[in-house]
Design the sequence.
């Protein structure tokens, strides 16, 4: 705390309201930052160091500054592990100093030794203590197990949250909802909140699409998982275990991760694969796809397996304890055997990376199947069982077949469905589809936690089947992709609609104007070649917090003062964006960020115009280049913070030697009176 007014004599200390006060709170926990901050406070997100600055700090700590002119690619691997974190760079530099050679740094050798010495070498003690504290401070054993499971994925792999959370459930790390309240969503949110897991891709409604653990944390997670025999890792044909630098094999492991490994003879392994409960493959697996050797598998993730064949899939149907099954192989996997009915415990079936387009009807008789992914047509004479538990189905292909209303009508627990209409769809089949959709969106007033979501792609057929939808309807999320001439009438009558995405070659003025009547909409995404000129009038979209334009021709709407009154995120992913395009961002008094697309030709003058407009806005919103987050977001945020500090006579604080990355929260929360 820094006070600009001194106390003297016997006067009682003044309250914070009576003096000019600056309070700075630094934390990695986002919940703490939000709790401490007030509406007018500034939260400063710490950015990681650039590659050049990281290398400078690393070589300085290693006393190897004379090699500063060496190629950056030589040190790429070790810099990726340190991930721009000052504490990691300084401690790894000291570790290198102890092992430096006369001819220069051995980058590859350091990378290979780092994990093995993380818990034993004095020079790495500071970073190890910090990592261990992050792990031990997690509030439950369930969350700790979920974190260790990230060791199953390569360090630089972008993990889809839904993929890993469904595997947590299948493994039994987290129950759907246990007595401690550790639901799978809460476990993931806790790891995000503590900045242990970092979001990489985020959708316009702030949902995390991909994530990963940061460099040194991933090394610690690997070390912990290997030392406790939770996983066995095979990388480039070599089995890794922390106890003897990669050459030790044990006979009991719960999880097996194959990363770019092709084993020619799995029978020679001194490891009992019959006890493995989880197998994930990245790249080739070779003879490890002999599923006769596995007996207790619950999770089988072959989504990124490149040598999977149809004959392997037949053997999978004998793994009776499977709860999670994801298949890859692309064009080499073309069919699913009827023996899939043996998998009575299966909860998730993911076929998106296969060439399977017709499912056997036995799939829809599986008593516990909850999530079904792929791109498949309706099988002949397929009727889901009365006990069908399917909640998510992506994607049904609509062709000339009929009976969709009867088929989907049996799925009483369905909450998320994605539909793809082909050009072969007939009027009869589309009428059947319309009845199915009408039943799916039927309003249920007592549904308090209903998260029904519908996505329809119909660019190969007419939109007329949507016009017949009527009555009281409910959806939380809706995506329409096709030739939209007007906004279907049922959309404006949807109760509970929070997220809407419209995609078409051209979105016309009448359709766009009608969007202004959606009083409860929070997230809006418009994807088009161009937009007609239209005006968003005062009080239009009163609940909207985020709007994203994805346009080839950047014709943006005219927005009256008072339109979108609580907008926080303005996202302009437009080709050839020129200047502010007539937008008055001062109208948006709650604006926190403006996102531009760095992957298209946005000239420097336009970027500067937006930065100037943001600097003149009362909130000083961040200007972020979407495809350059790693290199520019930290700089833009830092520039905004320094600008704010200079204008308000405050200091900008950086945490020295902090174990931080671009997503870590180091909140500089400033309170003035």
Sequence:
């Amino acid at each position: 705390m820094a006070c600009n007014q001194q106390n003297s004599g016997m006067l009682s200390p003044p309250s914070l309201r009576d003096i000019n006060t600056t309070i700075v709170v630094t934390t990695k926990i986002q919940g703490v930052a939000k709790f401490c901050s007030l509406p007018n406070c500034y939260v400063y997100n710490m950015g990681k160091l650039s590659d050049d600055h990281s290398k400078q700090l690393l070589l300085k700590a290693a006393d190897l500054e004379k090699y500063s002119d060496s190629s950056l690619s030589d040190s790429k691997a070790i810099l990726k592990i340190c991930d721009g974190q000052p504490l990691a760079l300084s401690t790894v530099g000291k570790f290198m100093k102890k092992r430096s050679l006369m001819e220069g740094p051995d980058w590859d050798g350091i990378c290979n030794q780092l994990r093995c010495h993380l818990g034993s070498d004095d020079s790495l003690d500071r970073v190890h203590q910090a990592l261990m504290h992050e792990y031990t401070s997690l509030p439950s054993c369930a969350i700790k197990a979920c974190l260790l499971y990230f060791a199953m994925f390569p360090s630089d792999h972008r993990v889809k949250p839904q993929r890993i959370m469904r595997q947590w459930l299948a493994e039994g790390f987290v129950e759907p909802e246990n007595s401690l309240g550790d639901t799978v969503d809460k476990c993931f949110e806790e790891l995000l909140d503590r900045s242990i897991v970092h979001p990489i891709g985020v959708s316009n409604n702030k949902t995390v699409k991909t994530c990963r653990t940061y460099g040194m944390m991933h090394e610690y997670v690997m070390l912990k998982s290997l030392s406790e025999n939770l996983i066995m890792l095979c990388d480039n044909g070599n089995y890794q275990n922390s106890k003897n630098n990669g050459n030790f094999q044990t006979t009991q492991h719960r999880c097996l991760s194959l990363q770019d490994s092709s084993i020619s003879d799995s029978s020679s392994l001194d490891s009992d694969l019959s006890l493995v409960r989880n197998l994930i493959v990245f790249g080739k697996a070779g003879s490890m796809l002999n599923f006769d050797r596995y007996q207790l598998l619950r999770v089988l993730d072959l989504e990124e397996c490149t040598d999977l064949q149809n004959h392997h899939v037949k053997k999978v149907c004998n793994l009776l304890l499977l709860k999670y099954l994801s298949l890859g192989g692309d064009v080499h996997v073309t069919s699913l055997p009827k023996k899939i009915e043996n998998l009575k415990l299966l909860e998730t079936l993911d076929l998106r990376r296969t060439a399977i387009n017709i499912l056997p009807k036995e799939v829809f008789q599986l008593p516990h199947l909850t999530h079904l992914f792929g791109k498949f047509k309706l099988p002949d004479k397929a009727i889901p069982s009365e006990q069908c538990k399917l909640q998510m189905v992506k994607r049904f292909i609509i062709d000339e077949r009929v009976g969709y209303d009867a088929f989907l009508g049996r799925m009483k627990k369905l909450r998320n469905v994605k539909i793809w209409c082909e050009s072969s769809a007939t009027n009869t089949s589309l009428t059947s589809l319309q009845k199915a959709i009408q039943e799916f969106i039927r309003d249920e007033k007592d549904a308090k936690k209903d998260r029904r979501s519908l996505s329809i792609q119909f660019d190969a057929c007419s939109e007329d089947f949507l016009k017949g939808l009527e009555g009281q309807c409910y959806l939380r999320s809706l995506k329409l992709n096709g030739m939209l001439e007007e906004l279907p009438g049922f959309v404006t009558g949807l109760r509970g609609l929070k997220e809407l995405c419209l995609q078409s070659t051209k979105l016309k003025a009448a359709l766009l104007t009608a969007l202004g009547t959606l009083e409860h909409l929070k997230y809006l995404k418009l994807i088009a070649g161009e937009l007609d000129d239209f005006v968003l009038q005062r009080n239009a979209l009163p609940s909207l917090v985020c709007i994203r334009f994805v346009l080839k021709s950047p014709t943006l709407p005219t927005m009256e003062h008072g339109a979108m009154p609580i907008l926080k995120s303005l996202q302009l992913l437009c080709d050839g964006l020129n200047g502010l395009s007539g937008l008055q961002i001062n109208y948006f008094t709650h604006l926190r960020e403006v996102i531009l697309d760095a992957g298209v030709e946005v000239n420097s003058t336009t970027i500067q115009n937006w930065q100037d407009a943001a600097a003149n806005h009362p909130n000083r919103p961040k200007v972020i280049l979407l495809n350059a987050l790693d290199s520019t977001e930290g700089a833009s945020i830092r520039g905004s913070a320094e600008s704010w500090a200079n204008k308000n006579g405050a200091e900008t604080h950086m945490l020295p030697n902090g174990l931080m990355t671009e997503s870590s929260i180091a909140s500089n929360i400033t309170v003035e009176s």
